[in-house]
Write a structure and sequence with these properties.
By secondary structure, the chain is mostly helical. It has one domain. The chain is 79% helix and 0% strand. The longest helix is centred in the N-terminal third of the chain and has 31 residues.
């Protein structure tokens, strides 16, 4: 059981770090421009992802709802 808890903590910490880096990339892309050396074209990728979800109608809306639920209701650590 201790190993599972440790793995959950690692996954939670890595997920939080990835979300922080994503937020940093979005802010830097908006301030500096979309051609960042390390982060690439983050805003372009996010806009394409949202456009794909929007073009799928109800399935895209359900998918977006599930994604939001996963990130808002789950405790990462």
């Amino acid at each position: 059981m201790n190993g599972i808890q440790m793995a959950k903590q690692w996954v939670g910490a890595l997920t939080e770090l990835a979300l922080m880096l994503l937020a940093l990339a979005i802010v830097l892309a908006l301030l500096i421009g979309s051609n960042l050396p390390f982060f690439g074209t983050v805003t372009t990728n996010i806009m394409a992802w949202v456009k794909d979800l929007g073009s799928n109608g109800l399935v895209g809306l359900i998918s977006l709802g599930i994604i939001i639920w996963l990130f808002s209701k789950r405790s990462m650590t």
